[in-house]
Design a protein that fits this description.
Keywords: Membrane, Transmembrane, Transmembrane helix. It is a multi-pass membrane protein. The chain is mainly α and about 300 residues long. It is built from twelve helices and three strands, in the order αβββααααααααααα. The longest helix has 26 residues, at about 245-270.
């Protein structure tokens, strides 16, 4: 692997492009040699195939960014992993953004913003963005070997698709069918139990974030509380024929916080030295591996050098 900086990498690629010799490469000893200063051979600059070092828009991980991706931004609560040889872009910010926007919209409805009560507006976003796009992001997490990210993003993508199916007005007739057989209480109880199932699943994921960062933990903690409050709102509101208002509003408030926490973690995965003037802080827990390392309680340098973390 080249030890040059990203700027040097781009400068050399741009110089080659300026001389119109970027495609004049020799494949020597298993490496592509891009021409430097219009020459080949000994003065050529070695790089790995498909590196695209001359592209100023390329996201090139060098130095600390190779070894230390953000927990939340990578959607990986475990130890740091070397991503320099990854052939896929980081899909986590896409999945987090899809989740955040859809959750934000539904939570505003649950809060009764501008007098809104029916969640019909969220159906489109739940199918397309929070559902399909997030599901795809989860599958791409599987491709890069992130089990936690794949499980979480694909599952919540499925949640939004399922929720859209339930809430589609007239289309699938789920709500009307339940109400036809057991009244409004039948739908409220059923939807409340559905949300309680997601509360249990989110709690399992929450346990896996206890050794990560405050930003990552906050996302799952507030989301778990949102599912709990919404589940209680629908179950306890069944006799009255409408969700219990106080818990519904609480669920909406926790959902808003979860949405902004998801956007924050997405930004941590997008922003780096190539596009931002600052690094997004994610606040490592003091008992996490990174927190202990900073307090000189553990030394992971050898493991990182061996690319085992």
């Amino acid at each position: 692997m080249s030890t040059s900086t990203a700027q040097e990498h781009n400068d050399l690629g741009n110089a080659a492009l300026h001389n119109k010799e970027l495609n004049d490469m020799d494949f020597v000893n298993g490496h592509d040699y891009a021409p430097a200063n219009g020459t080949n051979g000994a003065n050529a600059y070695p790089r790995r195939r498909f590196d695209y070092g001359g592209n100023p828009l390329a996201h090139i991980n060098t130095g600390e960014s190779v070894r230390l991706p953000a927990f939340g931004g990578e959607f990986q609560p475990g130890l740091y992993k070397n991503i320099n040889d990854r052939k896929f872009a980081n899909p986590a910010p896409l999945g987090l953004s899809a989740f955040a926007l859809t959750t934000f919209v539904l939570s505003l409805v649950n809060l009764g913003t501008e007098g809104l009560t029916a969640p019909n507006i969220v159906v489109g976003a739940a199918f397309a963005y929070g559902g399909l796009v997030q599901l795809c992001a989860g599958m791409w997490e599987m491709a890069i070997g992130n089990t936690f990210g794949a499980t979480a993003l694909a599952s919540y993508g499925g949640f939004w698709i399922g929720t859209a199916i339930i809430l589609t007005p007239g289309g699938f007739a789920i709500e009307s069918s339940l109400e036809a057989t057991g009244g409004s209480a039948a739908f409220l109880n059923s939807f409340g139990l559905y949300l309680m199932g997601w509360f249990i699943f989110t709690f399992l994921l929450l346990i896996c974030t206890l050794r990560s960062t405050v930003a990552f933990f906050t996302l799952f903690f507030t989301l778990d509380l949102a599912f709990l409050m919404l589940g209680i709102a629908y179950i306890t509101g069944a006799p009255s024929g409408a969700p219990q208002t106080a818990c519904l509003r609480a669920g909406g408030a926790f959902g808003i916080i979860a949405a902004f926490a998801a956007w924050y973690n997405a930004l941590a995965g997008i922003a780096d030295s190539s596009n931002s003037f600052f690094v997004i802080p994610v606040a490592h827990f003091p008992w996490s591996e990174k927190g202990r390392e900073r307090r000189d309680k553990v030394d992971n340098s050898a493991a990182r050098a061996a690319e085992s973390v």
